[in-house]
Amino acid sequence: MPKCGAVSTFCCGTQVPTNLCQYQFYNVELGRRDGKVSTKANVQHHLPHPEFNLDQLNSMFSTNGLSQSDMIALSGAHTIGFSHCNRFSSGIYKFSPINRIDPTLNSQYALQLRQMCPLKVDPRIAINMYHVTPQKFDNQYFKNVVQGRGLFTSDQVLFTDARSKATVNLFASNEGAFQSAFIAAITKLGRVGVKTGNQGEIRIDCTRPN
């Protein structure tokens, strides 16, 4: 039986929820070796922030060989899952000195978010990323963003910035195009930083280095 590292196991794990959420199967490339160092500090600077603008998003993804279209397709994963209120509260309470609420947001949606996440809310409170089809991996994320219902600033900017708007419109109107782009992008993401030869290890316990 071939050995499978924790990274490969994790990659397979990303496929399971998408299948359970009525999304098509895709082939996951296996055989990745695991790193010998794993810390929170190493991860924090490699994840996009909810308040990123398009230039910041493109810069982060391009360092890993991912295009703007790849980044937009991967953002579509926000169609399922949840977020804690503090991850997007700045967009509905303190966006800028002039506008408390992000003016690119649908005003009714912003008020709904305020009702679900009032000021000084329990930090453990979380809400669904999107409420139309929260358990289905579809293109509803893009439809919501077109309507000004992007939960994160980094979501809504994909539509408000003219450089990415056309791709959002495409994915919102053509679910097949989104699915194909997502599979291609997540496959490319799975190839980032692959260790070869004697690099890394195959963990005995997925939760920690050997």
From TrEMBL:
SUPFAM superfamilies: Heme-dependent peroxidases. Heme b binds at residue 78. Its EC number is 1.11.1.7. Binds 1 heme b (iron(II)-protoporphyrin IX) group per subunit. Disulfide bonds join 85-117. GO terms for biological process: response to oxidative stress. Residues 26-210 form the Plant heme peroxidase family profile domain. It is an enzyme of class 1 (oxidoreductase). Substrate binds at residue 48. It holds the Pfam family peroxidase. One of its GO terms (molecular function) is heme binding. It comes from the Eukaryota. Keywords: Calcium, Disulfide bond, Heme, Iron, Metal-binding, Oxidoreductase, Peroxidase. Its cofactor is heme b; Ca(2+). InterPro entries: Haem_peroxidase, Haem_peroxidase_sf, Peroxidase_pln, Peroxidases_heam-ligand_BS. It catalyses: 2 a phenolic donor + H2O2 = 2 a phenolic radical donor + 2 H2O. Ca(2+) binds at residues 79, 133, 138. Removal of H(2)O(2), oxidation of toxic reductants, biosynthesis and degradation of lignin, suberization, auxin catabolism, response to environmental stresses such as wounding, pathogen attack and oxidative stress. These functions might be dependent on each isozyme/isoform in each plant tissue. Belongs to the peroxidase family. Ascorbate peroxidase subfamily. This is peroxidase. It comes from Lupinus albus.
